[in-house]
Design a protein that fits this description.
7% strand, extended
């Protein structure tokens, strides 16, 4: 924390001696210099300095016109400004009430007496949107009859009531929507229900929110399986997530069609591969697995016996580790490398393309398959530098301009035809080398440039795969949903609560991406109607539409 400085009191300078006045002037000069340095430090950190507040005025101060022409010009300017103020930006929009469904119509006649012979010339419509919020309790009285033979006949509850219990589908949908979409906490929800006249205990509310949600968990898992099978790339990121008082991590996997969240106690490459593998527990010694082990420099004398069991499938972790022990592979590093390879084999055998693009911030656990590095995260290394001189600031600014200029050109490159891309590919590789191998007078900047140059292949992955994004903004935006929930509700205390948090975050974000109302989705699933297709089916439809659009674009570009 900074030290709070004592402000100088207002002093009558006429009562001060010459020495005291000189000291007062020196203190004020030092205060100004301290503020300048404080603002400079804030600027270097990317923050804002102390704002310069102007004294408020009742009316804007205007310069008096010196001549008639000046006065006319000023009036014209004022008229122009007033016209601009009348119409706000973005006001040219559709009529908000033109397509509203009308639930009630009231015809209002004039208060005055209508003279005989008057003719009705139509109506002037005025639409009011309203929301009716009130309890709606239904009492089902099951009639019980006794026949002459002594048999009892009783009425039966509707199937929907038997399925819902003592709380209706709309109420349950609303509670799920408020909790998972609007992030309203359970105590606030219960208080709201109490104020609305709904008798609902804390235990009943918790059961509605987190219990018996297997069908939602299954649909969430289907999101990942289908999303990975139809996608050419994914965005991924992770963030902290406490569970039962222990630090855990939530991993996001998704793209423009789906978003999937899962909280686990660790974050490493094995964990990421297990997530990609899905619900299966297989370990597969495929050719891709053996290639991975060789690239990760697993000793050849260990790779050789593993290659003898190529395409062998191990049902679970225990069977796999037992096999490694049988081969004499027991060192932690070797076990880790071999396990990563076998998991990669299982991922690919489950239907994931071996050429799947993975866009991330560059964290080690995500550097698999066709990995691309986010340009925004890469440039942050340069933005974090603190130059000490004007020359160093200019060097940093120049490099940043060059990087973002190349970034914009790569975005244009993505829109070109395959023939044009092939013609420009070498030139952009050369431009990359010019930027990231240059030597400036700022040595720390030079070190960062050399570090980024070593990631050239990942930064320029777009030259080989124009379908990949240049940044990981999509994943960061999706994971903010989880961060917001974490800030409001803190950690989860049960496995069912953790699963529901991950599941409904996944379903909500995916609905948004697919253009499905999350409220309509919840009411459809809770009521059991299931008229909305599964989100996995909608993802497949989106993928097919995208492939058709892409084929048409390529055809037009070639022509």
């Amino acid at each position: 924390m900074g030290v709070k400085l004592t402000k100088l009191p207002k002093l009558n300078t006429s009562e001060l001696t010459d020495g005291e006045a000189l000291l007062l002037q020196l203190v004020r000069e030092r205060d100004e210099r301290i503020q300048e340095l404080t603002d400079e430090v804030a600027r270097l950190k990317g923050e804002k300095g102390k704002p310069k507040l102007k004294p408020s005025r009742l009316e804007p101060k205007q310069k008096a016109p010196q001549a008639k022409e000046d006065a006319q010009e000023l009036c014209a300017q004022e008229n122009s400004d007033s016209q601009k103020k009348k119409k706000r930006p973005g006001s040219a929009k559709r009529k908000k009430t033109a397509e509203l469904p009308i639930h009630e119509t009231q015809v209002i006649q004039p208060i005055e007496e209508i003279p005989p012979g008057s003719e009705l010339r139509g109506y002037q419509d005025y639409t009011v949107q309203e929301l009716i919020v009130r309890p709606h309790n239904i009492l089902y009285r099951l009639a019980c009859w006794k026949t002459p033979t002594g048999e009892y006949l009783r009425g039966k509850l509707p199937k929907t009531v038997l399925m819902m219990g003592h709380f209706g589908s709309t109420l349950k949908s609303y509670l799920l929507y408020q909790y998972h979409h609007c992030h309203v906490t359970q105590p606030k929800l219960r208080q709201q229900m109490e104020e609305w006249g709904i008798e609902l205990s804390s235990g009943q509310l918790n059961r509605i929110l987190v219990e018996d949600k297997e069908k939602y968990h299954s649909e969430k898992q289907e999101l990942l399986r289908v999303g990975l099978s139809v996608s050419s790339y994914i965005n991924t990121d992770d963030t902290g997530a406490r569970h039962e008082g222990v630090n855990s991590y939530c991993t996001h996997i998704g793209n423009e069609w789906f978003a999937w969240f899962e909280t686990t106690p660790r974050k490493n490459r094995i964990n990421f591969l297990e997530l990609l593998r899905g619900e299966t527990t297989d370990y597969v010694l495929s050719s891709e697995a053996l290639t991975y082990m060789a690239k990760q420099k697993l000793p050849k004398h260990l790779c050789a016996p593993l290659s003898l069991s190529i395409n062998r499938v191990f049902k679970n972790k225990e069977e796999w580790l037992s096999y490694l022990k049988h081969l004499g592979i027991e060192k932690p590093r070797h076990v880790k490398t071999a396990t990563e390879g076998a998991l990669l084999g299982a991922v690919i055998s489950s239907g994931v393309s071996p050429h799947l693009g993975i866009m991330s911030d560059g964290a080690g656990q995500f550097r698999l398959l066709e990995h691309g590095l986010c340009w925004v995260h890469a440039e942050r290394l340069i933005n974090k530098l603190i130059p000490l001189t004007q020359a160093q600031r200019q060097a940093v600014s120049k490099v940043q301009d060059e990087i973002w200029d190349l970034y914009q050109n790569l975005k244009i490159y993505q829109t070109l035809s395959p023939q044009q891309q092939q013609q420009q590919k070498a030139s952009w590789e050369k431009r990359f080398e010019q930027i990231f191998t240059q030597t400036t007078l700022f040595e720390t900047l030079n070190q960062v440039l050399r570090r980024l140059n070593r990631r050239k292949r990942e930064l320029l992955k777009v030259l080989e795969r124009p379908d990949l994004p240049l940044h990981n903004n999509a994943s960061e935006q999706d994971i903010r949903e989880f961060v917001t929930k974490r800030k409001i509700s803190g950690s989860t205390r049960s496995d069912s609560g953790r699963r529901c948090r991950d599941t409904f975050a996944s379903l909500k974000k995916t609905c948004r991406k697919l253009g499905v109302s999350f409220w309509e989705y919840l009411t459809d699933r809770v009521s059991g109607k299931n008229s909305i297709p599964t989100l996995g089916e909608l993802i497949v439809q989106k993928a097919m539409e995208s492939q058709g659009t892409l084929a048409e674009t390529i055809s037009l570009s070639s022509a």
